[in-house]
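Handoff note, outgoing to incoming analyst
You'll be picking up this chain. Sequence as last confirmed:
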Amino acid sequence: DLHLDIRASIYRDLRNDYNDKYEYILPEINIDKNLYSENFGYGNINTNLKIHNYDTNKFENYLINDFNWVFDKTFGDLNYDGKFIFDLKNVNYEAKNTNNLKEDTTHEIFGGIGYLSSIDLIKKVNENASHFLKPKLLVKYAPNHMKKVNGDHSLHRKNIFALDRLNIGSNYESGSSLTYGFDYEIDNTNASKTNFSFGQIINEKKNNKNMPDSSGLDNRFSDFVGSLNFTNKNNLKINYNYSLDQNFKETNYNEIEVDYTLGNINFNLDYLEESSISNPKAVSYTHLRAHETDS
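Most recent structure output, in case you need it:
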């Protein structure tokens, strides 16, 4: 399983008062290879080459190699799912006329190891209804030093049960942490299905100034993040994603999508409200639309 992707991009800034209007990424080459061993697990290796020129004389050239490996392993006679997760990242770059990168050719190594465990609990209420509960726990250790990260990296957009929640190509989330949470499902056969998820990250360090405050990973206890999804046979779908402050006093993110079909008419309601420590003023919008579907 080998995938090769080659791209070239040119961007133009439409602001009239900005002289350096063009930005070039030429080329960007991505090579991705899936790996599998019957005895030792499975993984992936990815290589990305990116030549970036912007503001006329600023250059950033990257060659990044990522190696990920998963090895299924349980301990004792307990009936649970367990796996070791390994990440290794090699970042090579050259920069010119930039403020946040070294001018000399630089080589960096990042990496992390973790153990992810979960257990499936099932309760059959009757012939038509079942409850499923899946507690999950991730223990992570990444000894490398990371560069300071800014910008929006809210956890509700991330997989918190991954080793690198930031998912930035030229950087890697460092430190030791414990992530816990659960998935809960109520399945009423031929009637409705409800899914609920919840999770939080507990960091070893009380404060980490290299982490963006928008993620909550700069504190020992991150925000609570999760989702609620509901569907039924009457063509009603409700999706809710949320981020709750660690003190349970306020929500930092609420996204609700409601979809309902009545005959040939489809109704859709979207609501979004978002705020953060770096941007405490909430941003919100509501969008309601209806359209006729094909009969």
